[in-house]
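The record is given unchanged here:
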Amino acid sequence: MEIKFDGKKALVTGAGKGIGRAIAKKLVECGAETYALSRTQSDLDTLKKEVPSINVVQIDLQEWDKTRETIAKIGPVDLLINNAGVAKLAKFTEMKKEDLDYVMDVNFNAVFNVSQVVAKAMVERGEGGSIVNISSAASQDALMDHAAYCPSKAAVDMLTKCMALELGPHKIRVNSVNPTVTWTDMAKMNWSDPAKSEPMRARIPLGKFIGVEDVVNSVIFLLSNKSAMTTGECVRIDGGLGVH
């Protein structure tokens, strides 16, 4: 099933690393004029070397007004992927206010802010659009030491539904994908030790951890007209882990 975005403009936040970077590269491959946003210039520099046709923009999404100005300058966007996300882990009783604010600023407030600017322009243009928010399976599954992260992603899920409700009449679809941690990230967290990884793998009906490409493929499908009647959905990407 070939998906093309020729003539479309796409914007990806958190595009410097990991899933966001892979989504941005795939969008270029699919023909979209792609804008990759990141707060880390060095990541954008290497991305530009890999994909010369991509447009890179350095921005700290915690800067509310500057973010709005930057998004507005990019112009009308057809496809928006809110991928930027952070985590600060601590016991609930030990979580510092500045860490809570940081997680909520990036994981929720930035999604709200960027989406508001993009969606308003979509409505005014009258040609519809598609928005995908990168949430997490942790929006539904409580995790130890994640008292800031899990609620921030739960908020993204509900925002996704509220946006879908309000924007649907304007032919704007809004969905989220809710992946578990990818095998690449697990390796970074020293989960390559079978003693750590195998008990979790055993709970996954499909018998393996997800890869970055699994998330990318789901996002591309939801952005495309192949999912033209899908909106307001929070799609778990977990190999079936959530059935338990």
Helices lie at 18-29, 41-50, 64-74, 97-125, 149-167, 183-188, 194-201, 212-223. The mean pLDDT is 95. The CA atoms of residues 167 and 173 lie 7 Å apart. The chain is about 45% helix and 15% strand.
